[in-house]
Amino acid sequence: MRSSADDNLKSHIEMVILAALERGPSHGYALIELIHQLTDGVLSFQEGTVYPLLHRMEQRGLIGAEWEIAPSKRKRRVYQLTKEGQQELVRKREAWDSYSLAVSSLLQRS
Asked: Domain Transcription regulator PadR N-terminal spans what residues (predicted)?
């Protein structure tokens, strides 16, 4: 049985992936590297975490994917944000802002 903490973490990772894809289409490994780079290494996800999430997000219509041939001649999936994904990102950002504000208020030192 999954805990609500696991679901909450996956939701936050989904938000990060959607925000990264907002910058433009990307294949999975480049997406992991982009997130790592943009967060100065604070967020570092394993392929085993990201690829199943990408698959579920594609099934839910949040992202689209197409196969392309990489320079190495290997096939890879390139992911892009869909209209539904953009709308979900707006909702997740609003929820994050509310959550972040609440936690920041709690952590304020007197």
From this structure: 17-89
Question: For the chain, give me the number of helices (H) and strands (E)?
Answer: 4, 3
Sign of CA dihedral 59, 83, 48, 4: negative
Task: Write down the domain spans for the chain.
Answer: 4-101
Mean pLDDT of 14-35: 97
9 DSSP assignment: H
> Residue 7: pLDDT above 70?
no
Q: What is the helix (H) or strand (E) element at residue 81, kind and residue range?
A: strand 75-81
The highest-level CATH class for domain 4-101 is mainly alpha
| For the chain, percent of residues with pLDDT exceeding 70 | 91
pTM of the shown model: 0.87
